[in-house]
Automatic annotation (TrEMBL):
The keyword Repeat applies. Gene3D superfamilies: Tetratricopeptide repeat domain. Signal peptide: none annotated. This is Tetratricopeptide repeat-containing protein. PANTHER family: LIPOPOLYSACCHARIDE ASSEMBLY PROTEIN B, TPR REPEAT-CONTAINING PROTEIN PA4667. SMART domains: TPR. It comes from Halomonas cupida. GO terms for molecular function: identical protein binding. InterPro entries: CellSynth/LPSAsmb/PSIAsmb, TPR-4, TPR-like_helical_dom_sf, TPR_rpt.
Length: 594
């Protein structure tokens, strides 16, 4: 069945999961408190007074054509037409292979407010001057902004190589907090560590960063070994104590984590991450007075982070201290621009305490936006938990009348809640009625198709997907889902149609990793293992999805790469807290796990 990785391709993905996935888990707080030390793409206010004041001079060696191109670029810059200026400098730089001209092109591109143009200029600059640090800084920032953390790290390594103030550990800590895949970060770190003549500081920095990736992969012994390998040489580096504290928390040793965080804070009193680590450790130890004090100090230190109180409240709530969470959040209610997670969390606290009416008051204050659907789901769930299913349905019906943009998602929420209460017939009727009212509602029809597949009703699933494709022939999600469904059933007569559908989806969305996985799976069903491996490895490199992992393990095994398959199996079992598709693979092919 198409897994969540395919379901996520819906126009507006429905997310009805526990609150912890929508607030700020402890690790994600590091992103807010640390941040990437990148190069700003937007120009500073000082630069805007005279955009080209810091640009390198244009030197001799120009012919008539080159001079004309540069004069046009210079005049464009003076008029504020920075796009044309940048393009002119790029053209001249290509002709003369001049780093100075590329630098001018990059500076002008920043004022054009066009990230693609900035990236083109910076890449040209780097191609001419591979060691140019400003180009690497720009490329690292751009890669970070689009979530390409491996490329961002590669560029950061160029900037930081052998510098005594390098802080690759901070970068990796932030990247992991933002969801970067640790194994993809480990690769460039290992490559860099293998280089000769690294300074002692830079080598220690790389080792600490690698220890963070080990811990993120669940290999805490290896992480600790790397830390111990540095001996006392790194004990004066704040990142050493950051990593030591994180590893200790992962090993469920909060006292050790607290001591390490204290050492780090003594070395770097302005680094809020150590206060955060001490707060986490204190909460785990039950030292509420100290935890409260550290949390308040952290909030005072970082008044510029509006979601910080939410994240800290989440830490208290996760360990069973709702009163402490409420203490942090209640004063924020009613303030201008109160973050919606505040209302979500207070609603959850009230619901857990059985105060349904108060919970509803909080949930209803969550406006349209990323947390709107979750708040309505949680409100309806609170009513159901109180034995008020009819009221929950009335609530969702009322919300639909007031939120036309979220109408379909609210129907889906009601259907899922009915299913969870064993009311499948009522859910069937709800979906039938709504699709009869709006037959071309692609989101609802896609949901019903996936629901039918999950219930073992392949005929209804296929029928709904075909109807959806009739209404929306360029719906890549539906094309991919139907193609994958046909391929996964293993009927040789369906493989041609499956491949045609998936290839059409690929034409529409060539960079979609879910479609890459489907292309690999249909190739696997045909017995073309090499093609299957190529596509599924591409998918796995982009999305950490357990179904893609299961596919890759099976393909590797059948290609005779048993050790790689087993290594990936162990990695997947560590990486995913729940892995039913991996378990199903082992049950079906137990030899892989032996």
């Amino acid at each position: 069945m198409p897994s969540d990785v395919r379901n996520r391709q819906m126009t507006r993905p429905l997310i009805c999961k526990p609150l912890v996935t929508h607030t700020l888990p402890a690790l994600v707080l590091s992103v807010l408190l640390g941040g990437c030390q990148g190069f700003g793409i937007a120009p500073s206010s000082a630069e805007t007074r005279d955009p080209m004041i810091n640009a390198p001079p244009i030197t001799r060696g120009l012919d008539a054509g080159g001079l004309s191109t540069l004069l046009i670029a210079e005049m464009a810059g003076l008029r504020g037409d920075y796009r044309r200026a940048s393009e002119g400098y790029l053209k001249a730089a290509q002709r003369y292979q001049s780093p100075a001209l590329i630098e001018r092109a990059t500076l002008a591109a920043r004022f054009a407010d066009d990230p693609l143009l900035v990236e083109e200029a910076a890449r040209r600059w780097q191609s001419i001057s591979p060691e140019a640090q400003p180009a690497a800084e720009i490329l690292s920032t751009l890669a970070s902004s689009r979530g390409d953390w491996q490329e961002a790290l590669r560029q950061s390594l160029i900037v930081s190589e052998n510098r005594d103030d390098s802080d690759i550990t901070r970068f990796v800590d932030t990247a992991l907090s933002a969801g970067a895949r640790p194994e993809r970060l480990a690769e460039p770190l290992r490559d860099e560590l293998s280089q000769p003549r690294l300074s002692a500081h830079f080598r220690a920095d790389l080792t600490l960063a690698l220890a963070l990736t080990d811990a993120a992969l669940g290999d805490l012994n290896q992480a600790r070994t790397r830390l111990d390998s540095l001996g006392n040489t790194a004990s004066q580096m704040p990142p050493y104590w950051l990593v030591a504290s994180r590893i200790a928390l992962d090993r469920e040793r909060p006292s050790e984590a607290r001591r390490a965080a204290q050492r780090g804070l003594a070395l770097s009193p302005e680094d809020p991450r150590f206060l955060l680590l001490m707060t986490r450790a204190d909460i785990l130890l039950g030292n509420l007075t100290s935890a409260r004090s550290n949390a308040d100090a952290l909030i005072e230190l970082r008044r510029d982070v509006p979601l910080l109180k939410v994240g800290l409240a989440q830490l208290f709530l996760e360990e069973g201290y709702p009163d402490e969470a409420s203490r942090l959040l209640t004063p924020v209610v009613g303030e201008p621009n109160t973050p919606s997670p505040v209302y979500l969390m207070l609603g959850d606290i009230a619901a857990d305490q059985g105060d349904v009416e108060n919970a509803l008051l909080y949930y209803r204050q969550v406006p349209e936006g990323p947390d709107f659907l979750l708040s309505r789901h949680n409100a309806a769930q609170a009513l159901i938990d109180a034995g008020r299913l009819i009221d929950a349905r009335d609530f969702l019906r009322s919300e639909r009348l007031h939120s036309s943009e979220s109408y379909s998602e609210l129907v889906i929420i009601e259907s899922e809640l009915l299913d969870s209460q064993g009311q499948q017939a009522e859910a069937d009727e709800l979906l039938r009625r709504e699709l009869e009212r709006v037959p071309d509602d692609g989101e609802l029809r896609y949901f019903r198709a996936m629901r039918a597949w999950g219930n073992g009703d392949a005929d209804t699933s296929e029928s709904d997907l075909r109807t959806l494709i009739q209404h929306q022939p360029d719906n890549a999600t539906a094309l991919n889902a139907l193609g994958y469904t046909l391929a996964d059933q293993g009927d040789p007569e369906d493989l041609d149609e499956a491949e045609r559908l998936i290839k059409r989806a690929h034409e529409l969305q060539p960079n979609n990793p879910a479609i890459h996985d489907s292309l690999g799976w249909v190739a696997y069903q045909r017995g073309d293992l090499d093609t299957a491996l190529r596509w599924i490895e591409q998918a796995w490199a982009q999305i950490p999805d357990q179904e893609v992992g299961a596919h890759l393990i099976e393909v590797l095994w059948d290609l005779g790469q048993q050790q790689r398959a087993r290594d990936l199996l162990q990695q997947a079992q560590r990486q995913f807290s729940e892995h039913p598709l991996i378990d199903e693979l082992i049950q079906r092919r137990p030899e892989i796990a032996r």
